[in-house]
Amino acid sequence: MSEPALLQVRDLSLDFPSAQGHFAALSGLSLEVSAGECLGLVGESGSGKSALLLAILGLLPRNARLRGSIRYRGAELLGLPAAALNQIRGARIAMVFQEPMSALNPYMRVIDQLSEVPRVHAGMSRHAAEQRALEMIEAVHIGDPERRARQYPHELSGGMRQRVMIAMALIGEPEIVLADEPTTALDVTVQAQILALLQEMRARTGAALVLVTHDLGVVAQLADRVGVMRGGRLVELAECEQLFSQPQHPYSQALLRLVPRLQSAP
Amino acid sequence: MSPEAPSRWQRLRRHRGALIAGGVLLLLALSSLIVPALSAYDYYTPQLDLISQPPSLHGGHLLGTDPLGRDLLIRVLWGCRISLLIGLAASCISIVVGVLWGAVAGYLGGATDALMMRAVDVLYSVPFVPFVIVLTVLFGRELWLMFVAIGAVSWLDIARIVRGEALSLKRREFIDAARVSGVRAAGMIGRHIVPNLLGIVIIYATLTVPTVILFEAFMSFLGLGVRVPLASLGSLIADGASDMQAHPHLLLVPAVVLATIVYCFNFIGDGLRDALDPREHS
Fold this sequence. Notes:
The complex is a heterodimer of chains A (266) and B (282). Helices cover 37% and strands 26% of the residues of chain A. Chain A has ten helices and ten strands. In chain A, β9 and β10 form a beta hairpin. The longest helix of chain B has 37 residues, at 72-108. The radius of gyration of chain B is 22 Å and the shape is elongated.
């Protein structure tokens, strides 16, 4: 491959010092994300899925020790000062959080929150940024955008808040969107709508999506490739179809057996 | 309920206690500004033939006179003016300084936080009264000095409270979300941390204003406050207390006015908190 991958994680290790020596959250993890693809990451709680996303965005707590390399278009992100990282965060790599309620500032109207990104990055005027925010609110199919834009997060339903989160992630036109269990906090019917929206937005913007979830059904719907994580390692990385039809690693096989099926009722 | 959420102003107006309190305060403030200018009496000229008159509707001294024959109503209104001025100005200083100091320390954390909060600890250990005495010896008894002295002491509490809140706020996910959006530290503190502190700051501010007014009364009592013949509510109460058995109205009138002011600020704080918190919607 002549061109470096959009996002390249090499030999990434992360540990937290604790009273009992240190706790390893990630050990020797490597993966690549290429432009426009959807990479699903599955695994049990504590397998390091979320830690990986936080590491990519430089959001880990101070006492975290991170080794290895994270490259965006060949440029090293690890150890970058905050000012340089801010050029990339939001503009090139964005994130959709799990809990839309706690990830939105309760004291900021939707439109102010959305327009913050273009104002910070593109240096847009207030008016232009608000215009852009309104476009995004419409793009994520929130009914009555003019009115909703002027409301506070608590006045929106859970599904609408997650739509706002997605709009917030996409407003800077990033090349990579990291989504940390974007549907876990929502009920089932809304989950389906949000997944459909993610798919639609991906098709429209061509952004790569890294989707962290413990819902294999979600992965099967959206992902091109799937990584299975356990204990801070990537135990298997395969094309989506291949993983579901012929899982190679014993852990992947075990994981897939756990998916409830209607036919398997006794 | 209408589909539109009520505006902050509408929500404030629904809070009747706050409205009445605001009205009373406004009335007090306005009359303390206007009445002395219109009155035939002033706060400093003694009338030795009219010493310690009781309140009466005849003879022009509605609330009577003090032991030097000065009109009590005018002196109380002047006292209001001084006390409100000191209360508001010193509270503003202490809130602005305290909120910024605490928010910056709490948000940045680490060595900056340690350094800033140790500075607060050191200032805490400075005894207040000797500090004020030194200031008055150095600069004389000036009104602005009182703003500085009270402001310098009372921002410390606010800084500590705000820092604690900021520490817990910065662990919230929306702060991460803003960081992911590339928001820098200044924008973070200004747009995300401080607005979320509004509720607690307002509650604390309503406690600070009366505290500051009482501080000032205390200093006036010690003879470190406003310069005679100018009066503040505190110095009027101190004067009245020394004569309370013979002429209770000299104590009662300024004391009632002071209590009213303190109550009013509490009511307003209550109403403002309800109105400013977007999560409280009725």
